[in-house]
Design goal:
- The protein contains eleven helices and 17 strands.
- It is α+β, with helices and mostly antiparallel strands.
- The longest helix is centred in the last third of the chain and has 16 residues.
- The protein is globular.
- The chain starts with a helix and ends with a helix.
Amino acid sequence: MSLRHLVAAAVVTACVIGTAQPVSAAPRDPVRQELRALVSEHGFPGALAAVRERDGDTRDLTAGPNVPVNGQVRIGSNTKTFVSVVVLQLVAEKKVELDAPVEKYLPGLVRGEGIDGRKITVRQLLQHTSGLPNYTEYLDTDGSFALQHTYWEPRDLLDLALAHPAVFAPGAKWEYSNTNYVVAGLLVQKVTGRPIAEQITDRVIRKAGLRHTYFPGVGDQSIRERHPHGYHPDESGELVDVTVLDPSWGWAAGQMIGTPEDLNSFFRALVGGRLLPPAQLKEMRTTVEAPEMWPGARYGLGIMSFPLSCGGVAWGHGGDIPGYETRGGVTEDGRGVSVAVTAMPSEEVAHNAVLKTVDTALCSH
């Protein structure tokens, strides 16, 4: 079905926990209005959000046809924050050193043209200052999305990156690279002797009390619970359903599934100090400029800060994977929002509209 037909067919709903009422009868709500605009004006097939107020109340909102309240979505690069938490927990346990070379934990593995694991530190992996080439630049994740049902081993992803030269010398600058978190995932597995999915589940998901978040198993192409369908343009620009896909090409950089409410709970638990000791949380929140992301964004160790129009900053990450984009953040005073749309934006104006929805949710209450 084409984007034009999806938008034309959209029947917008707006839901609050425990209630459901026609849009015309709903009280004026700027977040609800912006969700509706994401569908009607910016062409997203669907949108959903969880908004947490300062007093702890949570509102779940949806827009578009067949979008379930607090439905599961593929959360893409939010996975990186989960991985970083695991690494920093290992740092707290004295099993990993932040400023030790990757070579110490993965001897002989990270090698290539201008690439040497003896010169790249664990911190540089987590902060995207390693200079490692980004393997996803060499995958077909656009057009017809030929990788929809292809399984990838993590080492294959790393090999794809290492076939290309370093982008810059370690520590010379900041540049986002999914390869950093493939290496981080391999490091976790080498140090613990256990799968990264198990480590994330035991150390983060259960500790934070997340009920609808998981790392899909090998070969799992489905989304387990109620979820909106995700769409991606084919070579002609027509949106096609890519809800069922193999996310292994994202692995520790972007494989996970969760809900907007769970994302809020995760980032609140993290920023609130429930997942890391103070020393490691301080390291995580020590940021560098990240101009490639969006104006004012700064990147820590698997987490970003970004300024709000009402003052102060929010902390979060965000994720993009064919079918879904998620953006959100939490503030020190307890506000939180996670917004998901059911297609990756194809134009900057649509991308900015998602960011504006996040800002509105954090600043309007």
